Amino acid sequence: MNRSFPNVDSLVPALTEAYGPPGRETGIRAALKRMLRGAGTPREDALGNLRLHLPGRGPRLLLTAHMDAPGIIVTRVEASGTGRLAILGTMAPSDWIGAMVLLDGNLRGLVGLDRPGDAKDGRDIEADALFLDVGGGPAGRIRVGTVGALEGRSVKLGDSWCAANLDNRAGCAALVAALREARGFRYDVHVVFSAQSDLGGRGAATGTFGVEPDLAVVVDVALTGESKGTGGIALGKGPCLGLKEQGFLAHPLMLELVKRAAKSARVKHQWLIRESSGSDARTVRASRGGVPTAVIAIPARRTGGPCALLHAKDLNDTATLVRQILKTPYPGEKGPR
């Protein structure tokens, strides 16, 4: 049976509740630095990525998970004091309605909707119909350019976590847990907690380019219902191995490496095919001359609105799988990139 990571659950609240929308990842970087004490010396690069190097003699392996979470930015402030918004990331406007947000890390606000009188539902609303209200107070508390992130308390529901920002703080938790337990790995390991993923994989692009890895593993979250042609994915049945995403096809030898690691660690897995969405894998795979890349995704259920649900066992199994990957030889070290 695979080994449990008793510290994984302890990581989730601090990571999901840390402030860190795209381009403003200060809070989540600080939380990760605290958690990585003893595992190496993390450093921040010019784009805002958090990097960690664990020296080894084998091929250069990149482990990456994006640390930013969906955000909003104030584009104008009306005479009433409310702010009009644009969305940072791919989260639908309807999912922001009623969300509590943390602004610039210290001011709270509520996202509302100016619903037209003839509106039948919220499926077709535009971001400019959203507004931000901070509940009165001194004039000018909201400024154009203010950036906000979802705020919400992490709650354990039975064997599952319900929280905002699980995409992709869950992936960060799995990496941290695996790195804390890493012993005897066979790679020169480079870890990048990437910034600005929700703005188009910017952190992954610069992070991968700087490392110039021989191979890479991207850890992310997959929503139930988005996998096509594989029978779907479910909570509690193990991490997903990505076969195909928008603009990305898994490298066969990296896929074989991850499958071998899963078998050795006795971690059950599911298959993931995403046609219209994806992770940072597309960016990582195409960096420099090309990087053999695999995707591991933690199943999550979007519960409606600014929260998601994932099973603690899937999180634990993902950490177990990542740790085993560090010990599993790459089956084609001289193969094509």
Describe the protein's architecture and organization.
The protein is of the alpha+beta class. The chain folds into 2 domains: 8-69 and 153-325, Aminopeptidase (3-Layer(aba) Sandwich); 71-150, Peptidase M42, domain 2 (Elongation Factor Tu (Ef-tu), domain 3, Beta Barrel), CATH 2.40.30. It contains 8 helices and 18 strands. It has helices spanning 8-17, 26-35, 93-96, 166-180, 202-211, 252-265, 281-285, 312-325; strands spanning 43-44, 50-54, 60-66, 71-77, 83-88, 100-103, 107-113, 130-133, 147-150, 155-157, 160-163, 188-194, 215-223, 240-245, 248-249, 270-273, 293-302, 308-311. Strands 1, 2, 3, 10, 11, 12, 13, 14, 15, 16, 17 and 18 form a 12-stranded mixed beta sheet that branches. β6 and β7 (107-113) form a beta hairpin. The longest helix is centred in the middle third of the chain and has 15 residues, at 166-180. It starts with 7 loop residues before the first helix and ends in a 12-residue tail after the last helix. The model has no long low-confidence stretch (mean pLDDT 89).
List keywords for this structure.
single chain; alpha+beta; Aminopeptidase; Elongation Factor Tu (Ef-tu), domain 3; six-stranded antiparallel barrel; globular
CATH topology of the largest domain: Aminopeptidase
**Helix fraction?**
10-25%
The pLDDT mean sits at: 89
> How many E-type strands?
18
Segments where pLDDT lies below 50 for 5+ residues? none
CATH architecture of the largest domain: 3-Layer(aba) Sandwich
Q: Would you state the CATH class of the largest domain? A: Alpha Beta
Fourth-level CATH superfamily of the largest domain: Zn peptidases
Distance between the amino and carboxyl termini:
34 Å
Number of helices: 8
Residue share in β-strands: 25-35%
Number of domains: 2
Class by SSE composition: alpha+beta
Shape label: globular
The radius of gyration over CA amounts to 20 Å
Biggest β-sheet description: 12 strands, mixed
Order of helices and strands: HHEEEEEHEEEEEEHEHEEEHEHEEH
